[in-house]
Amino acid sequence: MATPMKYICFVMFLAILSIGFFSQVDGAGECGKTTTPDKEAFKLAPCASAAQDENASVSSPCCAQVKKIGQNPPCLCAVMLSNTAKSSGIDPKIAMTIPKRCNIADRPVGYKCGAYTLP
C-alpha cells in the first residue's frame, strides 16, 4: 500500500513541477526583454527641459525618440514615470504633453498612465 501512495505522490509532484515550468513568465517588462524603462529614459535626455516646463520648445531629437518609444504606449508611460525620469526632475504631468507638443499624429490619445492621461 505504501508503494502506490509513493507513486501517486511522485506523479503529483511531477505534475505540479511541470505546471510551474510551463506557466513561467518570460521576464519581459513594459519595454520588452532587452531593456527597462530606466534605460529607455536616458534616450529621452533631449526632452529634459520640455518635460520640466510646458512652455519650453520640444526639440526634433526629443520628438523622434518620443515617437519611437511611443510605438509601445505602456513603455512610454513606464519611461515617463521611471525612477530615472523622477530623479532627473521630470514633471510627469508636463512630460505627458510631449507627444501632443511634437504633433505626433498616431500618439495614444487618452491612454491612462498612472494618475495621468496622455492628451
Automatic annotation (TrEMBL):
Entry keyword set: Signal
Gene3D superfamilies per record: Plant lipid-transfer and hydrophobic proteins
MF terms in GO: fatty acid binding
CDD domains: AAI_LTSS
Domain of life the protein comes from: Eukaryota
DNA repair listed as a keyword: no
InterPro entries membership: Bifun_inhib/LTP/seed_sf, Bifunc_inhib/LTP/seed_store, DIR1-like
Domain named Bifunctional inhibitor/plant lipid transfer protein/seed storage helical: residues: 31-113
Keyword tRNA-binding in record: no
Signal sequence, renumbered to the chain: 1-27
GO BP: any one term: systemic acquired resistance
Protein name listed in UniProt: LIPID TRANSFER PROTEIN
Organism name: Salix purpurea
